[in-house]
Amino acid sequence: MPLTDALPIAKLNQRTWHPNAVLLSLSLVMLAVIWLLNPVSVAPNRIVPGTSYHLLDAVGWFGALLISLLISALVALALLPTRANYRAMLALVIVMLLLMPFGLMVASHWLVDPGLPQARLSIGAASWSLLFILLLCLVELRLRLGLSRLATTLLLSCVGVVWWLSASLWLQNMALVQEFQAREQQFWRATLQHIQLVSMAVGVSVVAGLLLAMLMRRYAKLQKIAFSLLNFLQTIPSIALFGLLLAPLAWVAANIPFLAQLGVSGIGTTPALIALIAYSLLPMVRNTYIALEEVSSDTLEAAKAMGMRSSQRFWQVRFPLALPVLLEGVRVTTVQAVGLTAVAALIGAGGLGTFIFQGLGQAAMDMVLLGAIPILLLALVVDASLGALADALRPGGHE
Amino acid sequence: MIELSHVSKHFGEEAAVDDISLRVAKGKFCALVGTSGCGKSTTLRMINRLIEHSAGDILLDGQAIQSYDPVKLRRRIGYVIQSTGLFPHWTVARNIGLVPRLLKWPRDEVTARVEELMGMLGLPIEEFAHKYPHQLSGGQAQRVGVARALAANPDILLMDEPFGALDPITREKLQDEMVKLQARLHKTVVFVTHDMDEALKLADHLVVMRNGRIVQQGSPLALLQHPEDPFVDSLLGGLERGLKQAALTRVKDHMTSLGQSLPAQSRIPADYSLRQALSMMLRDHCDRLTVVDQQDMPIGELSLRKIVKEAQLDKVSARDAY
User: What is the pLDDT of residue B322?
Assistant: First the structure.
């Protein structure tokens, strides 16, 4: 037993009553938001700006009362935060998330004129804010309850499935659903393209990053040059980089037929991939380099002193110990690439960005959302799964 | 057997180790003692070629270490460091079995050896085999470190302040076990420490270093009786030296047969140290003790006057021996 264990434990938290200020203020803001802002708007067709409706108009007295009661319960529980109450709050937040599509259903039933087939319901400021604040509550609850990343992801996936089902079954009048149904095939193709672009860019930069980081460890001079080059690349705005690549690649395609046959051209996938890889390299190389350097020198010296050859030291000690940090780099890189790929649509590389730029061009906000929401979800899924993988690979299992 | 003759190590202009010569006979325990930065760790690390020496010869069983492949050389030398250097992503059992696996022992032999070592070092297999280093206390981790160093049964063990980071109680316990282990295994050990008491307790041969040079070397008793230098004297505790020397001497070497006079009230076992005997005399206000054997039967007598007189005689003979 370490001697420090025998010391008396200092008594912290002498205060007996301390409400959870975060959840308390979040739920009060929620109450204000749903009564002061409008939860939905209705437009007769795609282009005309819609009319906003108040909570009472959207879900009636009964609905407004129910949601207010739920939020008030959250306020009450946040005043006395015991572990059981945190659990109850988690349940409340999940219930509210699950009820949101049903609220929209009620609103569309009352507000959308069935005689107008083009009429559509859009989600308004109050609903977006409510969703955002509920997710913030979830983050706080996750920390308080010590939930694992995996558990939170599973909970949110359940909510996602319910939303998906209600959207496809009952929310035909919702603008987002209409946008989706109008171009379902295009949507799936774009999603696939997006994933392909991201995985190719990340795949190449993982391999290149590892090689580059290993070279940097061997040749100290290379390290400075490579890092300053990669840092410089990172500072070029993405749209500018796409533009800069246009001319040289078009020239290459025009003058080297072999490469043109391979699909190299001034616009399209090739410049998009080059730019994505250029951006992905810095976080990848930096993390790989730091991960490999960070391994305790005592451990490595012990490995040497035990008679491990240098390749054994690298593959059996340095690399496995660096792996969690390295994966963290892959995670950051991938999340960044998911977002950047949206911009690649500008030069005709396809992907979900297409909807964003088309929607912006047509002033159809719901089409922009059709591109933006899946990108967001994709980033979240990547973040959660790679994060979980890095956790699982921590040396010595879980703490 | 390890032999260093006129070995130096230069880092640039600076000499970290400056012309040292030293010989550790097979099965002997040699401690390198000195303040930090005196070159003792560098000396140790030159033996398994973690650092290559710049001048002089280092011989292992009569053969220059440069003639060995460094990897093979290190596999036959056990190495223990203060921070343990255990691999955090491997279980205790896998850590211990490292060198035998590197030497391509058959799998069941590795398992058997790991189990044997865990038993030897007081690490119950069911409890520890599947733990990871971060789940161990400092003392347990260092036991694993020692087990890993002993795994392939090397003749030579290099230890770099292995117990330096432990709390005093654990440190003393591990030192005691090290004494027992060495009595059983007879390894040729080079042990680096800045703790003189630890060195006195463990070593057959003491080497005091300062600024990369050897100030004095010899048996612990010889150094205690005749420090050649104020630095060695202060390392050995100055005024405390007499007691430290007494701690290294057994009661049975100074007892006389039972006299005519009445046996003394206080009794002391024959294998206790003179230091304990002196302490007992102070505690019980007496100048004579009855020495008893393991069955608590009186076998002799110890008197303060005689201890003091013989300490002087020892001093004379130790000086003659030089």
Answer: 38
